[in-house]
């Protein structure tokens, strides 16, 4: 059986691939493909967009020859393939649909490039017909097993969820040279993903949201498959249009509570990788670059491996925290000895969606908003500063979700959002599963309808 894995880099779309077919009477036909997708060691998928001569030929005589070209050396290969089936839904179809949308946006053909199906072929033979001298390429860290091992060891040394997020972003930057990345957590109840951590952006965008199924991030989450686009595309530049997209999809987010999504103004390559723990979706790891063809199949393999380890570790940390016994030394409930001075800040809380404003500045909403409101009430009513994750988990009025959508992730989100906003309230770690509020101005709780 032929193995086409060494030719994956020839299927990035940098050089268009022609396909040759013939009618039952032997009449040949050649057409150019929008996309050749590597499926596995012996299968490829081709875009089915039009009911054209190629499609007619394949349905009557299921054999074709596809030419692919190495974009680095110019070496060319003929893939002798046999048509098997057409997929019109599922991960493979959605991955190719997202890539095609990127190509269409890049070429101004949004109204023409519409994927009708993903045609799956079995490759029976590979023929090299133009062999060029191999160029000297810089080493690719994504293809290095020692680097992957180092990355795995760093993840494994993380002490808590907050550290795990920082470690993953540091690995991408230091070991893989990926400067722009974000980690998004799934909100199962609201069917969206929210940004928990990011690196490389002027604004971190902590708390920004994307609906499930929207863009490469949302589709990668919904289909639980990596999606990679190597061409500049306006359709998937989240930072510019996420608010309008969310409203169009029925989320009806008020603008004052829509946190702008971080993103590059000139994104030319992007990849979204689902974070999984077995079949359970934890979230999405998203990376982007201003370079064309920045992320290849090796990068996809490496990041999916890291994302899977991250998913299991995050899941394990959530389960451990949920069953952790009470600490030997109880959290101090002693009142605050020195109250802050300065201009008072109104903490406005809206119960409908648990959104919180500091004066007129939006802070957070949802479960994280409910947690923050509870902390502020305890601070103001009881003059308490010290808290534990465990006591929050046991508070029935918070209505916390199950372990799969855990408290720890919401606390990390809240703590990072407070830092990003340079708020007058900060959450400081004081030990394992413990934290304190650091308040720099007087707070006035103000519940509103």
From TrEMBL:
Residues 160-324 form the GAF domain. Pfam families: GAF. Transmembrane segments: none annotated. It comes from the Bacteria. InterPro entries: GAF, GAF-like_dom_sf, Split_barrel_FMN-bd. PANTHER family: 5'-PHOSPHATE OXIDASE PUTATIVE DOMAIN-CONTAINING PROTEIN-RELATED. This is GAF domain-containing protein. It comes from Vogesella amnigena. The lineage of its organism: Bacteria, Pseudomonadati, Pseudomonadota, Betaproteobacteria, Neisseriales.
